[in-house]
């Protein structure tokens, strides 16, 4: 057996593959061969490191060197310098945004220091297409132990003790959900994995399935044993071809090893999974709509109760959990529920994966303990706001969530605190905004999304959201009134109270939350007709800087509404009430004397 | 590939496979391990550092010693190459010079495992070298 002294982990996630990581793998292998180092260094293709923005990533262990934005041409230098001579290629190392120094290894990168990886434990660590690497990390040992040594109820008790709550958005206790499905008697039951992931900007479920598909398969089998189901179905959006491919490879390997199929590990337990593809409608992520879609019907939600645990797929008891929820399960059994429950806050245990995006230096996928503060996430892991701008807000929970502001920076992030702050955990999108972002536009963006994604089954959501969107549009166009703000609030409440499913019940949240935290900004739009962030084109405030104005009169002639006045060779003035913000004067002025806000 | 027929089979399989993952596992928590760094720049390679490194790795794997071997660039002791720096958790790093396979084994068996000091320690404190840079 060869004793490798070094592994070169090349990211094979969707992000890095888009920038030629496959070619990098090829080149590294070729260079290693050229220098005769095949017995010393091994190239491994892994899942996502979460640092996709700076991809492609090549990480070298055991020295934890973290190369970013690697190009296929860089491979020769990496091998001849680092692999052969132990000299790191500095120009490829991650550069700290604050100190602008190269960081020698990933242990010293702010991005990774506060992370705890449970659901992502194998992502960027093992080759997801090689079941042996999963087994080497105790893969399927949890399933094996449970099948051989525990009753379903004992396993459910462990799940309950761990305190794990659903990561798909609602935060329902997973152990309790399994117990309910287990107690409902039926000749056939189903285990469903929700991999629809419709929240714009979220990609944790995709990364888990691409980087560690076996952990989800193992967890589904564990769930099958607990609730008494022998069939598992992964509902996955068809836009995730790589995740689908890896999931299929994983399932095939597990079958060959006898870890799926009949008589798993000689225990008499049988379980197998199949895949169903979604067309990518957001509403199909809602569990009842998802089940309808799996049955070949329109993906429309149905009234709960009955819950899927009573009457789900084909009318049979069905347990639906999210990808990330499942990914936590094997770790809970391996390390014990007490260990899991020791991480996090009183009512939210463990970690949560967030997709950190927006105006922040380190964009990426992070897994942090529940209870971490926004400040830590943004300024330590995220490396602070881009270009030294000022932090304004964070949108969490996607189209169902709301925003958190400066005053929430030190609030521990967990399910309940986010709800108390008028937002929610959702699937874990976290979009950071700076002073240049207009909060009315943000609300409008999410409403645009919901209007597009509403299934149309019930009126409050179908019509109400459309109205909300129209009013937001009106405000952004400078035609809003103060009464509109009140109207938005009232209509939002009605929609929340009367919509049939979670989509409509939460869709006004971005509106309510921005009104609550940024009322002044709404007011500025409707009374002063300015957009303080300078985003709403129709609300730009044009003024003339007297010191710069030469009185050339060019702007006066350009203005279509005669809003500019002034004597020749004297500073001119714009009449704000007459101005229609067309920008003509700005384009005409040769002396940059016109200021736009 | 064969079916795994029982939990015991799975456990055995894991034991056979885990070696292949060793250096990745170790990279997860280097600070809790004995960190051994072999100077591998041109001067080191010329004087046999590669063989020393392989000896160290094999010796560690044989007894599953909680240590991780990495290679570093030239440490500036070219006269004494190959050099090996050993950092035991909680202790100051120590640099050994003129290391060959025999000394490499001694480093593991005597210094790392028993805490005995050996001949061949370069009498310059690591920090001063760092300061000089
Ligand atoms: C509009 C809407 C969209 C949803 N989209 C998803 C989704 O993409 N993925 C997901 O896991 N859960 C989604 N959910 C939540 C599911 O209905 C369900 O609660 C979840 O899959 C349960 O799994 P968990 O308990 O593990 O979170 C969505 C809910 C609503 C109302
Ligand atoms: S709330 Fe919206 S998405 Fe949900 S059922 Fe009603 S119309 Fe469809
Ligand atoms: S075009 Fe510029 S310089 Fe000329 S009058 Fe207008 S603002 Fe003044
Ligand atoms: S923006 Fe248009 S309407 Fe307003 S002052 Fe300039 S030219 Fe006139
Ligand atoms: S896809 Fe490579 S780091 Fe995410």
Give the uncertain stretches of chain A in residue-range form: none
Oligomerization state: heterodimer
Which class of chain B in CATH terms? Alpha Beta
CATH architecture assignment name of chain B:
3-Layer(aba) Sandwich
Which two chains have the most extensive interface, and how many residues on each? Answer: A-B, 38 and 42 residues
**What's the number of structural domains of chain A?**
5
Strand order of the largest sheet of chain A: 10-9-13-11-12
- Largest beta sheet of chain A, briefly? 5 strands, mixed
Net shape of chain B: elongated
Number of strands of chain A: 17
Average the pLDDT over all residues of chain B and give the rounded result: 82
Count of runs of 4 or more consecutive helical residues of chain A: 24
Secondary-structure blueprint:
The complex is a heterodimer of chains A (597) and B (133).
Chain A (H helix, E strand, L loop, with lengths): L5 E6 L2 H5 L2 H14 L6 E6 L11 E4 L3 E3 L7 H11 L24 H4 L17 H6 L4 H9 L2 H11 L11 H10 L6 E6 L8 H8 L1 H15 L3 E7 L3 H16 L15 E7 L8 H8 L23 E5 H13 L1 H5 L9 E8 L5 E6 L4 H8 L9 E6 L5 E4 L9 H6 L8 E6 L4 H15 L5 H18 L5 H17 L3 H5 L2 H9 L1 H10 L13 E3 L9 H5 L5 E2 L7 E2 L9 H5 L5 E3 L1
Parallel strand pairs in A: 1-2, 5-6, 5-8, 6-7, 9-13
Antiparallel strand pairs in A: 1-3, 3-4, 9-10, 11-12, 11-13, 14-17, 15-16
Chain B lengths: L6 H22 L5 E6 L2 H5 L2 H14 L4 E6 L11 E4 L6 E3 L4 H14 L11 H7 L1
Parallel strand pairs in B: 1-2
Antiparallel strand pairs in B: 1-3, 3-4
Helix pairs in contact in B: 3-4
The complex binds flavin mononucleotide, iron/sulfur cluster (3 copies) and FE2/S2 (inorganic) cluster.
């Amino acid at each position: 057996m060869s004793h490798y002294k070094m592994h070169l982990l090349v990211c094979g996630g969707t992000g890095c593959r888009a920038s030629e990581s496959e070619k990098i793998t090829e080149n590294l292998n070729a260079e290693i061969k050229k220098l005769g180092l095949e017995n010393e260094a091994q190239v491994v293709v892994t899942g996502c490191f979460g640092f996709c923005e700076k991809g492609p990533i090549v990480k070298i262990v055991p020295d934890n060197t973290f190369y970013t934005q690697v190009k296929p041409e860089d491979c020769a230098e990496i091998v001849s310098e680092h692999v052969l001579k132990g000299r790191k290629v500095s120009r490829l190392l991650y550069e700290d945004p604050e100190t602008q120094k190269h960081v020698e290894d990933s242990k010293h990168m702010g991005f990774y220091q506060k992370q705890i990886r449970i659901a992502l434990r194998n992502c960027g660590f093992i080759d997801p297409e090689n079941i042996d690497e999963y087994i080497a990390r105790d893969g399927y040992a949890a399933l094996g132990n449970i099948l051989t040594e525990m009753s379903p109820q004992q396993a459910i008790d462990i799940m309950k003790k761990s305190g794990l709550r659903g990561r798909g958005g609602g935060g329902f206790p997973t152990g309790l959900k399994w117990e309910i499905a287990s107690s409902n008697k039926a000749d056939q039951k189903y285990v469903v994995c929700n991999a629809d992931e419709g929240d714009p900007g979220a990609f944790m479920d995709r990364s888990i399935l691409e980087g560690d598909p076996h952990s989800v398969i193992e967890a589904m089998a564990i769930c099958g044993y607990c609730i008494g189901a022998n069939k598992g179905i992964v509902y996955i959006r068809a836009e995730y071809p790589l995740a689908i491919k890896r999931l299929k490879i994983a399932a095939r390997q597990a079958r060959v090893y006898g870890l799926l199929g009949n008589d798993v590990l000689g225990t008499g337990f049988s379980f197998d999974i199949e895949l169903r593809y979604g067309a990518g409608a957001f509403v199909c992520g809602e569990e009842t709509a998802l089940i309808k879609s799996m049955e070949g019907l329109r993906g429309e939600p149905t009234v709960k109760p009955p819950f899927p645990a009573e009457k789900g797929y084909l009318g049979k008891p069905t347990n639906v959990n999210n990808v990330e929820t499942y990914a936590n399960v094997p770790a809970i059994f391996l390390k014990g529920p007490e260990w899991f429950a020791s991480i996090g806050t009183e009512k939210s245990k463990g970690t949560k994966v967030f997709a950190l995006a927006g105006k922040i230096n380190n964009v990426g996928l992070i897994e942090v303990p529940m209870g971490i503060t926004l400040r830590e996430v943004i300024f330590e892991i995220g490396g602070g706001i881009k270009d030294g701008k000022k932090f304004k807000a964070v949108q969490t929970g996607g189209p169902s969530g709301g925003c958190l502001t400066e005053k929430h920076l030190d609030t521990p992030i967990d399910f309940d605190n986010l709800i108390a702050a008028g937002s929610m955990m959702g699937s874990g999108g976290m979009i950071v905004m700076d002073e240049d972002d207009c909060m009315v536009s943000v609300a409008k963006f999410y409403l645009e999304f919901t209007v597009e994604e509403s299934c149309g089954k019930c009126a409050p959501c179908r019509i109400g959201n459309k109205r909300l969107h129209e009013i937001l549009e009106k405000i952004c166009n400078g035609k809003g009134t103060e009464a509109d703000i009140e109207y938005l609030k009232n209509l939002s409440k009605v929609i929340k109270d009367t919509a049939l499913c979670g989509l409509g019940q939460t869709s006004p949240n971005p509106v309510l939350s921005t009104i609550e935290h940024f009322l002044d900004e709404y007011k500025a739009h409707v009374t002063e007709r300015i957009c303080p962030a300078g985003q709403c084109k129709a609300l730009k405030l044009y003024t003339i800087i007297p010191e710069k104005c030469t009185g050339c009169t060019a702007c006066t002639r350009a203005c279509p509404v005669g809003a500019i006045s002034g004597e020749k060779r004297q500073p001119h003035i714009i009449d704000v009430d007459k101005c229609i913000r067309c920008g003509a004067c700005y384009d005409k002025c040769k002396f940059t004397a016109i200021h736009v806000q | 590939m064969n079916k795994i027929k029982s939990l015991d089979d799975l456990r055995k399989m894991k034991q056979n496979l885990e070696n292949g993952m060793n250096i990745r596992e170790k990279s997860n928590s280097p600070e809790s391990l004995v960190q051994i760094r072999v100077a591998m720049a041109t001067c080191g390679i010329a004087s046999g550092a590669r063989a020393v490194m392989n000896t160290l790795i094999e010796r560690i794997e044989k007894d599953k010693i909680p240590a991780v071997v990495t290679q570093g660039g030239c440490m500036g002791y070219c006269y004494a190459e190959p050099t090996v720096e050993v950092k035991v958790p909680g202790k100051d790093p120590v640099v050994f010079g003129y290391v060959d396979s025999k000394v490499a084994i001694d480093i593991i068996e005597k210094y790392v495992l028993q805490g005995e000091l050996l001949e061949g320690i370069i009498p310059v404190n690591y920090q001063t070298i760092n300061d000089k840079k």
